[in-house]
Amino acid sequence: MSGRSSGIEAAPSPVETGTVDLPARVAPVELVEVGPRDGLQNENRPLPVGTRVELIGRLLDLGVRRLEAVSFVRPDRVPQMVGAEEVMAALPQRDDVTYVGLVLNRRGAVRAVETACDEINVVVPVTDAFAERNQGAPVAALLDEAAGAVEVARGAGRSVSVTLAVAFGCPFSGPVAPERVADVAEAALALGIDELALADTIGVGVPAQVRGLTALVQGDERLRRLRFHFHNTRNTGYANAAAAADLALDVPIALDASIGGFGGCPFAPAATGNIATEDLFYLLRESGVPTTGPADLDLGAAAEVSTWLSEQLDSPVTAQLGRAGDARVRA
Question: Is 117 marked active-site?
């Protein structure tokens, strides 16, 4: 049901009626759309370049302003991401939009900076078991690759972030000791990056871990921005996002989400979709947490994009918003 239909009365939110307390955090949380990359990479049906460009255009129309558009990875490993250069060449260049390109190594960064990518996101797993399966090398070697990727990005005048994969748990080695995450985060921050991201790649995390892992880097003067990437594999993704939004930090916080809840890691068994953009926005809005990129989201229009993408992928929408509708809207 679209919220743009005529004759619909807007119901007040719990925040407006004073039935809930505002969170301690008052700074806006940035929403980062990962649907065009993480949302597609685990789907059985690869989408052609034109369809991927159309998806990004639809997301920009929703107000998305920072999004993972592509990844520069081996086509034989992730065929869904074939044609990254072609996608980037077809996208509109806008001063108010940040296109992120995901890379795994220096070679990927070289490809990325030859396109219109504004930001390079380097993935470094925190366990050797996952690093070997996902990227064919141990963590130490991947940190060296990350250093090379950062150098390439800086040389091309691009911003750069590092995402610590499987920071909340590994599908191959199990629970991850916080000390291990701290060590890899230390190495990543030493590279002089613009943003550090903590990723629950397989959806095992809980809010206590969100707070605990944040404490590992909180107060580090090298931390400029902190981002979180949650999957909802075990129905804890939204609880984790709420916990992250409540963090009282001196640096900006961002949350990844994927339109429709599509996504998953092809190298992590049973890793289902990301938290959904429309469901996350509803959660934050009704909790009184301001957002940017978008600051406001037409949830009906977002649900329509999710339905369209579902048809392109022949895969079901996992977001709940499109089924239940916006609670602020009633006939």
Answer: no
